[in-house]
Amino acid sequence: MRLKKLITESASKEAMGIAAFTATRGDAVQKFIDDNGIDASALYKYVKNGKMPERMAFVSALVGNPGNKMFKMIVSKFGMSESINQNQINLLKATYGDIKKINPNSPAVKKLMMALKKLSKDDLETISKAKINFVSTMAQSILRDSNVSESVNEAKKSTFIKVAHISNNGKLDIY
Alpha carbon 85 to chain centroid distance? Predict the structure, then answer.
């Protein structure tokens, strides 16, 4: 039920909580979380339990120059691993299991699609086999699209190899 709300909201509960503790905008915090692969709940706990220096460190990471010292610290400390695990699969199943309909043009669905596109081929295959409403289909679509582009690239390479061929007598034959 909680993720159903996230599909229509622009900022998660954690992002809104972080924004409240740091006097920043919830949508800016959510964008920071999404763009940098941050574990939102861990960051929320850090900001909530922290004092002013911890909160200011986050604000500096959010609004400072890209790649600043605080940015690097926050991203290294709260960045999520790229590989998907069974707990994440179970969470996706629990979240999307009872959703019957989605709006493919909603910002949340677009964010989900962008997050899926960043995953490795192995992770996408794991998600597609997990039979998660909508999410598995999206993963299959990304895999299919990547296989088509790989096939096109291979075809271009093989076409180039077939077109420019040097025969045994040293003559360049073009087919």
Answer: 14
